[in-house]
Amino acid sequence: MARQPRRAPETETKNMAGLYLYFSVFLSGGSILVMEIAAGRVLAPHFGNTLYTWTSMIGIILAALSLGYSIGGRLADRKPSTKLFFLLMLGGAGLVALVPALRGILLPAMEEGLGLRSGPVFAGLLLFAAPGCVLATLTPFAVKLAARGVGSLGAVTGNLFTWSTVGSILGTFATGFVFIPFFGLNGIFLTTAGALALTALFGLYLSGDLASLFSKRNARANLLLGAFVLASMGTGAAWLGVIPGVDKDTIWVRENMYHMIRVFERAEADGARVREMYLDHQPEGAMVLDDDRKFFYEYTRFLELGPLFAPHMKRAIFIGGGAFTMPKALQLMKPEMSIAVAELDEEVVDAGKKFFRLGKFPKLKAMVGDGRRILRSSGEKYDFIVGDAYRGLRNIPPHLVTREFFEEARERLASGGVFMLNLIGYRAGAGGAIYASVYRTMKSVFPEIYIYSTDPANAYVAQNILIFGFRDEDAGRFRRVSEAIRRDRKFEFAARSRVAPPGSRLYGPVLTDDYNPVEYLIEKGL
What we know:
Layout: H1 9-47, H2 51-78, H3 82-97, H4 99-113, H5 118-136, H6 138-146, H7 153-182, H8 185-206, H9 219-238, E1 250-255, E2 260-267, E3 273-279, E4 282-288, H10 305-309, E5 315-319, H11 325-333, E6 338-343, H12 346-355, E7 364-368, H13 371-377, E8 382-387, H14 403-412, E9 413-425, H15 433-443, E10 448-453, E11 463-470, H16 477-487, H17 492-497, H18 518-523
Parallel strand pairs: 5-6, 5-8, 6-7, 8-9
Antiparallel strand pairs: 1-2, 2-3, 3-4, 9-11, 10-11
Helix pairs in contact: 1-2, 1-4, 1-5, 1-6, 1-7, 1-8, 2-5, 2-6, 3-5, 3-6, 3-8, 3-9, 4-5, 6-7, 8-9
């Protein structure tokens, strides 16, 4: 029986090189999507986790891919060499490694000068367009290298783009479900750059081109590329663990798939020590360390109106936990009450237990999940519902300000129940559009609305606007509340703070699950 001839070593090397080419394309496709998904979290603290942020990043990466595919195909036609292929990958690695430094240096300054729409576009272009474009050149370049003739061109093209797309799919899910929840953003970029650089160097070794990098003909260009990659890696490594906005008062910080959480502790002018939580760059809640009953932010005082409006309340739920200041204060006001808090981020709940004494309130039940889903599925009736998940001027969850949401909230209110919404915004001018929309949307659901403000004298500055919606209409409510406020001096602030609804000339449409231009309305005031 004749023996099968052994494959020549050159054939085995070629097969190995072919497989490595597929792996390289797989890695480059994955790296582009790792970068895109992480980019959303990079930009969110500065420009909000909005539709504009994600639209900008998707558009920028698609544009980078289009340009990169075109450039890669032309380069491959002019000089189809494995050496140039892996040098392009090495250059892409250097550009990815620069992102942590550019993030820390550029974004705080850009936040000051750019708005909700322009900020993500220009920041995304500066940080992510170049590495996305360079990495995108690799797939069409690989097609040229792998195709053995016109007859195999279709299959090779399909296979390489398949593996690039598989890498992108894996990179997308890995970043959202694993990398961001468990690793810092700067570490993700640096690790991605390191994987690309090592793959490129091994590819040069495998193809026999590593030694030729330093030949006289190309020595200067290759040395410059090597110096750029090493400098980028070193700069990126220097920014590991460095997070914008962290200072000497920071006692705890986490970055996760939702936001950057920071806890500060400082002494006020009166000597009181205050512990404060920020989500991204927005203050979310604060606690005076020696007194859980004392309110640090002015708007939290309006919580005291809840028991006044619904004196027999027994059950309450807060949508949004933050530093848990208001749920704790309500528990101290009404120790017999059952209070639940729906908080989207489990690490915010952990921070509440560790830094804001949440564990000292065993009757206060924190539930992790989306507030609307928890409210809808609870099956409970509440006397008091507090919507406090509206983070600053830039971050208003669209699904928590629609008519359908308010209808669900009203349905969950017991007879005589009250819904309180804490909104930050303007009450007049172009910036008043989001306030007018939220008011009109609530008014389409609740039969009676009261509005209070932390700055009633000036409608043209950003302020906390507290909107109370009542489940039931009550002709005698205004008289009873007014008398109670006059009798008790602690409610003097409320008598001074009630404001009129937005005028009919102030733009602001009713928001629904179908029509919900929240980001557009917010951007009008920025």
